[in-house]
Amino acid sequence: MARDIRLSVLLVVGLAAAGELAFWPAAASQATSSRPSTSQPASTQADSTQPVRRVLLRQDFEGEKGDWGGQIITDNVPAGSTRALGATPTETHWARRASVGNRGTMRAAANTVLKFRYHMSKDIPLTIYIMDRTQKDNLRYDIKKPAVGRWTEVRLNVNRDFRRNDGSEGKLQAGDILTGISFLAGKTGTDEFDMAVDDVEVISLE
Ligand SMILES: [Ca+2]
Q1: What is d(CA 93, CA 80) in angstroms, rounded to the nearest whole number?
Q2: Cα(200) to centroid of ligand 1, in Å?
Q3: What spacing in Å lies between the alpha carbon of 120 and ligand 1's midpoint?
Q4: How far is the CA of 7 from the centre of ligand 1 (A)?
Q5: Domain 53-205, second-level architecture
Q6: I want to staple 73 with a disulfide (CB 3.0 to 4.6 A). Which of 6, 64, 86, 103 is the partner?
Q7: What are the domain boundaries of the chain?
């Protein structure tokens, strides 16, 4: 009995190795034939569903005047840049604030990406607010442990990563109207440090 099983196993392995076993080549051919049959529609589909990329906001602070709040700095800026936006003290709550795009509006997509560079001189959490005018609340993201002493690039998916500032689980929805972006850190009267941002971009993918 055991010998029969061994022989059967050997037979199966032998036939399979020779490519003569009916179900194995069938499965293999199914696997290979499914590739060409699906690759064509898949690639067509991929082309037609390539997200449309729209730059909703791009600010490098290189121009003399722009839609921002803070103080232009020219020392210790990222490589390839001559100017960045330094955060300035606020009288209430936040020790430092820099803001961008307060006068315009942006329509969010299903995927709305925020990119920027920041520089912090101290290990103080960096909070980002994006005002969602449709939801009438700020959307918030916290960088709890920012890099200190070096320019660092951040890329966030606002729909996925940000939450409403009221503490609810509400998220950014496609079609929402966004306005200014604020970069905030520290507590007024307590924290002294330098913070700057550069190359702020909001991109919609839909
Ligand atoms: Ca710049």
Answers
A1: 34
A2: 9
A3: 16
A4: 74
A5: Sandwich (2.60)
A6: 86
A7: 2-48, 53-205
